[in-house]
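Continuing from yesterday's entry. The apo prediction looked reasonable, so today I'm repeating it with zinc ion included to see how the binding region is handled. Same sequence as before; SMILES copied from the compound registry.
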Amino acid sequence: MPKHLPTHLDPRSPLVLDTRELPRRPGVLRTVKRVVPAPEDLGLELIGVPVGADLSLDLRLESVSEGVLVSGTVSGPLRGECGRCLRQIDDSLTVEIQELYAYENSTTDETTEEDEVGRLQGDLIDLEPALRDAVVLALPTNPLCRDDCPGLCPECGVHWDELPADHSHQQIDPRWAGLSQLTRKEE
Ligand SMILES: [Zn+2]
Ligand SMILES: [Zn+2]
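Holo prediction written out below.
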């Protein structure tokens, strides 16, 4: 019996890997290729993988002495908003995953913390936490529609791309201009 993990994983869940077909003999390999719907909130505030979008998993499961090493890539579309001009960003993302999952009651299970090394739950692996970490680490906290996006004019909110080069709001009212001359005289 697992001592600290609830066995709540559903083997039919798209981000759960079933290792029953993987003999517990070091060196044995299985590949997993599948397209799964992206879970909710996969990303950061301004950019992420849209919920339900196709995520392609291209993974290798390898038996090691105390567990299963999962490595490979996950790719999918990205949707976001430019941090400077708020234009929509459409992009794609490919991240590398490499994570060790220890067998229950193995020495690794007994001697490491769960946040250092993942755990199998029975024959199942929950890929979602590692996937989230990899995606979030790969995303920019301040995404841009393009590297040199000039952003918006702070006065009128129009994109600098759509404004003439000499666009300015510093039109000095003639009356104020007179006043500023007056102040200068007093100095
Ligand atoms: Zn922009
Ligand atoms: Zn303006």
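Comparison notes:
- Residues 82, 84-85, 87, 144-145, 149 surround zinc ion (ligand 1) (CB under 6 Å).
- The chain is about 15% helix and 35% strand.
Will overlay with the apo model tomorrow.
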